[in-house]
Design a protein that fits this description.
Blueprint: H1 7-17, H2 21-29, H3 34-58, E1 69-73, E2 79-81, H4 82-95, E3 101-106, E4 113-114, E5 124-132, E6 143-151, E7 171-179, E8 183-188, E9 194-199, E10 204-209, E11 220-222, H5 233-244, E12 249-250, H6 256-266, E13 268-272, H7 285-298, E14 302-304, E15 324-327, H8 329-353
Parallel strand pairs: 3-5, 11-12, 11-13
Antiparallel strand pairs: 1-2, 3-4, 5-6, 6-7, 7-8, 8-9, 9-10, 13-15, 14-15
Bound molecules: 2,5-anhydro-1,6-di-O-phosphono-D-mannitol (AHM) and magnesium ion.
């Protein structure tokens, strides 16, 4: 016999379907103040950007002019993909006539982009990586977008963006969108980390995981081991350690957002250390490492350069890079212990010479 349908079942299902991103922000802040409305509207626009990008990615193989390179090289010296350009412009478009964001800074633009009509009242800057992991696009593997919101503290029209050269503790919100088998948006406004899944039938991001906590330790280590020859001895020692101990498993997708997402849910550590070719690593502080560090700390984990908390790093320029070690507390500490050990040995050697 089928159980009788209970009105409370319907209420629960409806309540779940109604927990949209904008409602969740307001609920978190427990306020309808202007600031709360702003943050809710900001997240709503970012969600719209995510939906537009997800839609284009889902049909990329069927459309002309979506996949492949543009032929240009960006400020980072990397070849630009057509999807990078599209996604970069989507974020600008969704904030036009919003009155919210005066300035946007991204991986794809040498200098910040101003939306003049928003600037008299727009009090926020959006920092973002429009398509993270773009090498995955042409083979239909997951990619993401990363974002952070900061209060705007300057209106430098010379593009130097001096006020952005502050620590990640200045972020008021951060998150990412993962374009995977389903599209997910994960965010924090400093009150825990929450994940939303895009329900295609509604066209809305609906709350799927609230108050995510990363395990204290996890089995995953995520690093591009093809760079082994380029690493410091300490990072080589760490990888030798996990190779020789039971309980570790390697996962590396080539898209930080996907690798981070797995660690957030299952525990472990992601590393992109400095290399011979890139002594500061590959990842950019302001719109890759710092937003994810904000999320990881909110989820009870840690993010480090190896010697300093990522959120304390002061960037010297807009597109500054940092080494990144991020994930479960115990696993980040283990990587750091190898780095400290190497430093100590080097100091001892120096002292002996004197
Ligand atoms: P991108 O933003 O230009 O795509 O670069 C960042 C990506 C990360 O998503 C990923 O972790 C890393 O670069 C992969 O780099 P590599 O191919 O050197 O392992
Ligand atoms: Mg990136």
């Amino acid at each position: 016999m089928v159980d009788a349908y209970q009105p409370q079942d319907r209420d629960r299902a409806l309540d779940r379907d109604c927990m949209t991103l904008s409602r969740h922000v307001l609920q978190q802040l427990q306020s309808f103040s202007a600031d709360a409305q702003d943050l809710s509207a900001l997240m709503n626009r970012i969600a719209l950007a995510g939906k537009l990008i997800a839609r284009r990615l889902s049909r990329a193989g069927l459309m002309e002019g979506v996949l492949g390179f543009t032929g240009d090289v960006n400020v980072q010296g990397e070849s630009v993909k057509k999807m990078d350009v599209y996604a970069n412009e989507v974020f600008i478009s969704v904030f036009q006539q919003s009155g919210l964001v005066c300035r946007l800074a991204s991986e794809e633009m040498e200098q910040p982009y101003y939306i003049p009509e928003n600037c008299p009242i727009g009090r926020y800057t959006l920092l973002y990586d429009p398509i993270d992991g773009s090498s995955n696009i042409d083979t239909n593997i997951n990619v993401g977008s990363i974002f952070a919101i900061r209060q705007q503290e300057g209106t430098d029209v010379d593009g130097s963006a001096q006020d952005l050269l502050q620590s990640g503790r200045k972020q008021i919100a951060a998150g990412y969108i993962l374009y995977g088998p389903s599209t997910m948006l994960v965010y924090s406004i400093g009150r825990g980390v929450h994940a939303f899944t895009l329900d295609p039938s509604l066209g809305e991001f609906i709350l799927s995981n609230e108050n995510i906590q990363v395990p204290e330790h996890g089995p995953i280590y995520s690093v591009n081991e093809g760079n082994f020859w380029q690493w410091d001895e300490s990072i080589r020692d760490y990888t030798r350690y996990v190779h020789r101990h039971e309980g570790y498993t390697a996962r590396y997708s080539g898209a930080l957002v996907g690798d981070f997402h797995r660690i957030l849910f299952q525990g472990g550590v992601f590393l992109y250390p400095g290399t011979v070719k890139k002594p500061e690593g590959k990842l950019r502080l302001l719109y890759e490492s710092a937003p994810l560090a904000f999320l990881m700390e909110q989820a009870g984990g840690r993010a480090s350069t190896g010697t300093q908390d990522i959120l304390d790093v002061l960037p010297e320029k807009l597109h500054a890079r940092t080494p990144l070690v991020i994930g479960s507390k115990e696993d980040v500490s283990l990587v750091e212990s190898f780095i400290h050990e190497q430093k100590r040995e080097e100091e001892d050697k120096l002292a002996m010479k004197r």
